[in-house]
Structure formats: C-alpha cells, structure tokens
Amino acid sequence: MASESFDNRKGILWIDGQFVDWSEAKIHVLSHALHYASAVFEGERAYNGKVFRLHDHTYRLHRSAQILGFQIPYAPDQINTVTMDLLKRNNLMDAYIRPIAWRGSEDMGVSAHSKSIHLAIACWAWPSYFSPEARQKGIKLIVSPWARPAPNTAPTAAKASGLYMICTLSKNMAEEQGCQDALMLDWRGQVAESTGANLFMVKDGQVHTPKADCFLDGITRQTVMGLARGLNITVIERAIMPDELAKADEVFLTGTAAEVTPVGQIGDWTYTPGAVTAALIEAYTQTVNS
Q: How many domains does the chain have?
C-alpha cells in the first residue's frame, strides 16, 4: 500500500508566522524557489518531546540562507519556540521536523533581489528512514555516476535544495537496482557521502570518514564522531579513495533521518555490521533519548 501523500495529511503546519491546517499551507507555482532552487532547509528529529540539537539545526538554517544571499525574517529563538509549539499542537513526542525557507513570487527571472523570503515548518511521525530489516543486515548501496561538485561550482556548505537534484537521481537509480541508497564520490574521485547521510568506514578498530570539504558536515556526523572518541575509538578525517572500501571491516551512515545505519554492501563489496557500529548505534540512541 502506498504511503499517505504529503499534501493530504492531517495536522498543523506553521507558515510565515501563522499556524494553519496542513492542507492550507500553499505557495504560488511561480515562486522563485520552485524554478531556481533558491531554498534552504533542515531535517531534525524529536525524541521524547525534545528536538535533538535544535539550536545547531536552526543556526545552520540561518547560515545556509546567508550563503544563498538572503536573510530569514525570523530569529533563531523564534524558530525554536515555534518548533516546540508545533510539536505540541500535533501531539507528537517522536517526530521528524522540516523547516524550509525560500524566495517568493514577486516577479519571474533569475535575479532574486526583489523576492520576499518565506519560512515554513512541518513535523510528522517518521520512525526510520530505512526499513528495520535493511538496517539489521546492512543496507545496499550502488556507486553513483553523479559526483559531488567542487566548492567553487556550488554552495556546498549550505543545506540547499538545489544540491539534492543529483541525490534524487542517484537514489532513484539505486532503488531501481534493488538497493536502498547510493555512494557519491566527489569531483576528485574521492569518497564523499551517500545521497542524504555521511559515510564512515571501520578498519582495525579505527573509524575513518571523508573530510567534509565539499559536502555538508552533518550534525549527526559531528555527534557520532564525538561519541566515538568518548568510547576511546580513534576517529580519522581524511581523503578516502573508493578502493579502500574493499578493505573496510565495517561501513555505516549517519544522518538525522538515517541516524546510525549499518551498510552491508557497496557495489561488489560486502560487509557485516560489527562491534564498532553496534557500539555507536547504542551510544547515539542513548544520547538522543537522554
């Protein structure tokens, strides 16, 4: 059975300063963001009624907007207060939260100086990005033909909607081949990330992860790196070439939606979720629920 369409759900959203019924949250078809990808967003999770690292997510939302050349007309504290109120109005304790800011529809054209800035926040119950069965044995990834762009070709430090076009293409391709996600390399041919999560590999008890110099330095990524060091696990940020993944003992992804997800296969390389991944899953679960 197909999941419920996101334009036909029950609940309350917040848009441009007002709480509205889910079905009443609309934008015009000539909005600049729809045509030219001038939008930034966040993905957040609430556990037991608390949004994990809400301040950091809201700060990054503002920072992403600044990178795209606009200012969100609501202060971080206002956004945080609205987020918590929205969870209560929807009677949600465990939820996914999606704030998004975008340029409006005052006129049509690439130039964006005259466009108004809008902000909306939605939240809904979303237990897991990947199925429990896939997470238990490790998800399967293809290697995407699309590469993460160089920092001088795209605003790679922003969580901007336009950067996800190649992620959609890559994930669709993966699912068509019976996999759950795709590994993306960068323009240099180095390992970057998956379509919506950061990547880690374990070798000889040490955790290695690509340096985030052309993709988002995820908040979950930062959290898991800190947890690993707290468990006396060495964490190394460096350039990783694809053939190194053939020798990895374990591989896992991290992200707000993905949380900590074991990887069982990338192309022809296979892995068994092991002790390091299990320890970090447990540590992360305890942290977000504390």
A: 2
Amino acid 86 reads L
Structure tokens at 78: 């206002």
Q: Are residues 32 and 154 in the same domain?
A: no
Which structural domain range is residue 108 located in? 12-124
157 and 256 co-located in one domain: yes
| Cβ-proximal residues to 131 (8 Å cutoff; 6+ apart), any chain | none
Question: Which residue in 10, 159, 171, 247 is the catalytic one?
Answer: 159
What's 37's DSSP letter? -
Report DSSP state, residue 149: P
Distant-in-sequence, close-in-space partners of 77: CB < 8 Å, separation ≥ 6: none
| CA distances from residue 185 to 147, 177, 220 in whole angstroms, order as listed | 5, 19, 20
> Whose CA is closest to 228, among 278, 169, 288?
278
**Helix 54-67 crosses helix 76-89 at what angle (to 10 degrees)?**
130
Checking if the pLDDT of 1 tops 70, the result is no
pTM for the predicted model, two decimal places: 0.95
276, 149: one domain: yes
Query: Any catalytic annotation for residue 88?
Result: no
Side chain identity at residue 85, one-letter code: D
Instruction: Write out pLDDT tens, residues 43-100.
Output: 999 999 999 999 999 999 999 999 999 999 999 999 999 999 999 999 999 999 999 9
- Name the residue among 180, 170, 176, 117 with its Cα closest to residue 143: 170
Q: With residue 110 as reference, give the H or E element that holds it.
A: none
